[in-house]
Design a protein that fits this description.
Distance between the termini of chain B: 35 Å
Largest sheet of chain B: 3 strands, antiparallel
Strand content of chain A: 5-15%
Helix content of chain A: 40-55%
Helix content of chain B: 40-55%
CATH architecture of chain B: Orthogonal Bundle
Structural class of chain A: alpha+beta
Oligomer: heterodimer
Distance between the termini of chain A: 58 Å
Structural class of chain B: alpha+beta
Largest interface: A-B, 29 and 22 residues
Number of domains of chain B: 1
Largest sheet of chain A: 10 strands, mixed
CATH topology of chain B: Arc Repressor Mutant, subunit A
CATH superfamily of chain B: Winged helix-like DNA-binding domain superfamily/Winged helix DNA-binding domain
Strand order of the largest sheet of chain B: 1-3-2
Shape of chain B: elongated
Chain lengths: ~900, ~110
């Protein structure tokens, strides 16, 4: 049939349904009449003929129904009718509908929110052309010096050799991320940016939207005072004005000409807003042992990361032989960019995704249970419809329409929740690449897909069961309540058991996270976080090129800060504890056999002012702190941490011993004057490693973090302290202004994020499971009213009834808990990498959590059990 | 009627309905009588399957219906073959002959 008649027919069937129906009624009546007449002519009496014709017809309604079904447009028409009918049915039971929609909204919304994060970080390709070809190439450091570190930044000379010798890459670029001070008419802006080689942008295959990126010529010192700015910065600081190109900006007290503006969303490396050329001179290119750069490369077409890895391994072992002094033990590793950016967060996200999936499953089980309970009351309605000629398939479709309707309503509501929830997720967790996370069409598609799936999942069991019911049995039962539907009760119990099991798995997961977090919080960071304020500054190399200039700046800054009312003491260090590894240096110990630099032991290195330890609260164990007398013309001194003392001078007194940090070899051996307590440098969950401290005055670096001990709330001093520093130089921007408590909080933020979410999911799961147990027990009590009445009439005491009902609830819970324990035992291993100080099968958690859940199960069945004891035998026996 | 009745094969009903209408338009009961007649009582088409088939075939464009007057002056709905219906009858007849030949051959094989 061609399109137009088909459409007319569709139109007719949909919108002139009454006429079509009426015509058929007429047609069938004519048929009946004619058949009757035929039979009369065959010799039957009119009465008999009519009867026989009716029998032959076999039910006008059934025939009519079948004809309707074959009609084109039938599908759409019934779907529409199902929806209308469904809406009506749902409006009729508002409590049921609201409860269902809300629990599904929570379940689906949580899933959408987590999905948007997973999609943004793990699934969606990076926003560059052919992103799977982009890789980071890292060094792998020698394990005896850097235990546990699997990647390390690259030195200039090694990069130059890699680039020259490799053939697997289309392009290889080098960059380093750093902070810049952009001078403005007010306080300077501190910006994250990168110093990049000229092919950096072509590796990413991203060009400037206006102007251009860098030319190879601009990699030469002297030609490098050009800058490319990000779209965000352009909008924010320059009002999106295009004539910014060609203008001059003062960055780190140098002037740079703006040559290009990058497209919106280009923020590589993370959160970078401006890029300047990397200009190495010939000496820089020779440096092999100073690892400060990241190498970004694009694989050639048809070259896999594995092939590139093989080539890089060959090259780096060749370099090891060629330069054993600097390169011994230094390998190379090729890591696809995405994996490198999100590698650490993947296990946590997958655990959360599983957890949130569990919550949805539990919510579904609950809703399915509700639908079963509600369906029991609809059994009569359904039986009547079957009797009136509704086909089973047709009824199943009707019931599924209702459940899908519920699920989609819940899903759309959940989507709104997710829009709001994913914003919180991004704020709560320090997630990488946050520009990519958001509710988009993918998330909407996911929501709809999940909603449909959920709708079918929650509807299919009730739909199959109700339509299977024995017609005459149901119709015969006057009250419409089917007592003997034991299959249905089995299904309901099975659903509740799985709810309990799933929620136990979640609770155990959350329990393990709480235990880890609790253990971590009891870890001593090694310093006092109360009433402490910190802020960092990176003096620019030009204005502060001479050591005495830097010394003068920091001396004055400390003096100024000390003068601020409310400041108790002030010190400075090159890196605040808990904020990362920072500088690590090889060293040699006087009187012990010396080794090549690649084989020397390593220690984290900090440069500090004399007051630093006292200010931050690191205790002195032996010897003395630095004083103002330790300066460039006095004896070179060093303070080591307890861990370092234990490791290198076990059972000896390290005071007075001498060692030479390799970066300061020209100053000769340094005398150990003190031993101080260990601090957690990288994180509370990482053991304190060897650390050495040198007086800033003997090695004045341009970047320092101030530590200010305050008499009261440190936040109130942020303004006066920054002002004190800006009074010295207005072009040096302060960064990372935070209290020491915030530093501590931040170091735990990933864990707190994972833990909070897991607790939330587990909590929701537990409540849902409790509601499930309550629901099924409550229903059981209703079904067994009569029996309970008889028991009580025969002398059962309230206690017996209570025990009977609660025993049943307890059995359900126990089976669920047992199943949950087995699954948890298998599943929690997957989250081992998220734990600290507890094993994935931590017995305390595996005992406590089931006890809690069993208690919750008991409470949930206590309420129906109490109701059971209130059954009045006479009334119970009289009804039904 | 002692003759043995046979259940209609899937698809056969369409063929019989189309065939019954080749001589001219018929109403529902007429179609059913005509099938009874041309199959010599082997197939009895009940309204429960006849009407859905008629409506389906009408929607498929093989039949066209119109109201007319029956032999005893009753208003009845008459079905007639369309061009598409005739084509369909030809295809189905060919198919059927092929199948029936094949089955007969198969059954005669020793």
């Amino acid at each position: 049939m061609s399109l137009i008649p088909r459409l007319t027919s569709l139109w007719r069937n949909l919108f002139h349904k009454d006429r079509v129906d009426q015509e058929f009624t007429e047609e069938i009546r004519a048929y009946l009449d004619m058949l009757t007449e035929t039979k009369i002519t065959q010799g039957l009496t009119p009465r008999e003929a009519r009867r026989s014709a009716l029998v032959e017809l076999g039910g006008v309604e059934q025939v009519h129904e079948k004809v309707r079904e074959v009609r084109m447009g039938q599908l759409i028409e019934t779907a529409w009718r199902d929806v209308r009918f469904g809406v009506r049915a749902l409006v009729h039971s508002p409590v049921f509908s609201v409860v269902t929609v809300l629990s599904l909204a929570l379940g689906i919304g949580a899933n959408t929110a987590i999905f948007s994060v997973v999609n943004g970080l793990l699934l969606r390709p990076l926003p560059y052309p052919e992103p799977e070809q982009i890789v980071h190439v890292w060094h792998t450091p020698p394990q005896q010096s850097f235990p546990g570190l699997d990647k390390f930044s690259v030195s200039p000379a090694n990069y130059v050799d890699w680039k020259a010798q490799s053939s697997a890459f289309e392009q290889m670029a080098v960059y380093t991320d750093t902070r810049f001070s952009l001078s403005t008419s007010n306080d300077p802006l501190s910006l994250i940016g990168a110093v990049v080689s000229s092919d950096f942008f072509s590796v990413l295959r991203t060009n400037a939207t206006q102007g251009r990126t860098f030319t190879p010529d601009e990699e030469r010192p002297g030609r490098d005072q050009v800058v490319v700015i990000g779209h965000g910065l352009w909008q924010r600081a320059f009002g999106g004005n295009s004539n910014i190109i060609g203008q001059t900006l003062t960055i780190n007290s140098r002037s740079f000409t703006v040559v290009g503006i990058m497209p919106a969303g280009f923020e590589f490396p993370q959160e970078a807003e401006l890029w300047v050329p990397l200009a190495w001179n010939d000496n820089d290119r020779q440096i092999r042992s100073d690892h400060n750069y990241l190498v970004l490369a694009r694989l050639k077409q048809n070259v896999s990361p594995e092939q590139a890895q093989t080539e890089m391994s060959t090259i780096s072992s060749r370099l090891e032989q060629q330069y054993p002094g600097e390169n011994k033990g230094w390998g190379a590793v090729v890591i696809p960019l995405r994996e490198d950016l999100v590698g650490d967060i993947r296990p946590a996200l997958l655990v959360l995704f599983c957890a949130v999936g569990f919550v949805l499953l539990i919510a579904c089980a609950n809703v399915a249970n509700l639908m079963l309970a509600r369906g029991a009351n609809r059994q009569r309605e359904i039986a009547v419809r079957i009797a009136l000629g509704a086909g089973r398939a047709r009824l199943i479709r009707q019931l599924l329409t209702e459940s899908v309707l519920l699920a989609v309503t819940g899903g759309l509501l959940g989507f709104l929740l997710a829009v709001w929830g994913s914003k919180i997720l991004v704020q709560l967790g320090s997630l990488p690449n946050t520009g990519d996370i958001g509710i988009d069409t993918w998330a909407l598609g996911f929501t709809l897909l999940v909603s449909f799936g959920v709708g079918i999942m929650i509807g299919i069991v009730p739909a199959l069961q109700f339509t299977r019911a024995n017609l005459s049995d149901t119709l015969k039962q006057g009250s419409g309540r089917t007592g003997g539907s034991s299959i249905k009760q089995h299904t309901r119990k099975a659903l509740v058991i799985s709810e309990v099991a799933l929620s136990l798995v979640l609770l155990i997961g959350a329990g393990l996270m709480i235990r880890s977090f609790w253990k971590l919080q009891n870890v001593d960071p090694g310093f006092d976080t109360r009433n402490g304020l910190t802020m960092s500054i990176f003096l620019n190399w030009i204005r502060y090129s001479e050591p005495h200039q830097r010394l003068a700046f920091f001396d004055r800054a400390i003096e100024q800060i000390r003068a601020v009312p409310g400041v108790v003491s002030v010190g400075a260090t090159t890196k605040i504890p808990l904020t990362g590894g920072g500088s690590t240096q090889p060293f040699t110990i006087e009187g012990r056999p010396s080794a090549a630099i690649a084989e020397q032991p390593m220690a984290l290195t900090r440069y500090i002012t004399p007051e630093y330890f006292r200010t931050i609260g690191v205790p002195l164990r032996q010897g003395r702190f630095f004083s103002d007398h330790d300066r460039d013309n006095s004896v070179p001194v060093i303070i080591i941490s307890e861990a370092m003392a234990r490791r290198f001078w076990p059972g000896e007194d390290p005071i007075g011993k001498r060692l030479t940090p390799s970066f300061h070899a020209e100053q000769g051996a340094r005398e150990i004057v003190g031993v101080v307590g260990d601090v957690k440098a990288t994180g509370l969950d990482i053991d304190s490693s060897a650390m050495m401290y040198m007086p800033h005055k003997q090695a004045p670096l341009p970047f320092m973090s101030f530590v200010v001990r305050t008499a009261s709330n440190p936040e109130s001093l942020v303004q006066p302290v920054s002002k004190a520093i800006y009074s010295i130089d207005k072009e040096q921007a302060l960064t990372d202004v935070q209290t020491l408590d915030q530093v501590l909080m931040k170091s735990l933020s990933d864990r707190r994020f994972n833990m909070t979410l897991l607790i939330a999911f587990a909590g929701v799961a537990m409540v849902l499971a409790a509601v499930g147990v309550y629901g099924v027990m409550n229903y059981t009590v209703t079904l067994r009213r009569r029996e309970l009445g008889i028991r009580m009439a025969l002398g059962a005491r309230r206690m017996d009834v209570l025990r009977l009902v609660m025993g049943q609830g307890l059995t359900l819970t126990l089976i669920g808990v047992a199943a949950g324990l087995v699954s948890a035992y298998g599943l929690t291993r997957l989250m081992a990498s998220l734990l600290y100080g507890v094993t994935a099968t931590d017995y305390l958690t595996f005992v406590t959590v089931p006890v809690v859940l069993i208690a919750v199960g008991l409470v949930a069945s206590y309420v129906p059990a109490r109701r059971a004891t209130k059954v009045n035998p006479t009334i119970a026996l009289r009804t039904e | 009627m002692a003759r043995k009745q046979v259940d209609l094969l899937q698809g056969t009903l369409d063929l019989l309905v189309l065939k019954s209408l080749t001589l001219g338009p018929l109403h529902g009961l007429g179609v059913s009588h005509r099938i009874d007649q041309i199959t010599k009582g082997t197939f009895k088409v009940k309204p429960g399957s006849l009407f859905p088939a008629l409506h389906r075939m009408e929607e498929a464009g093989w039949l066209q219906s119109s109201w007319g007057e029956s032999e005893n002056r009753r208003r009845a709905k008459y079905y007639r073959l369309t061009a598409a219906g005739r084509r369909q009858l030809n295809t189905e007849t060919e198919d059927w002959q092929r199948i029936s030949l094949a089955i007969t051959t198969a059954l005669k094989a020793t």
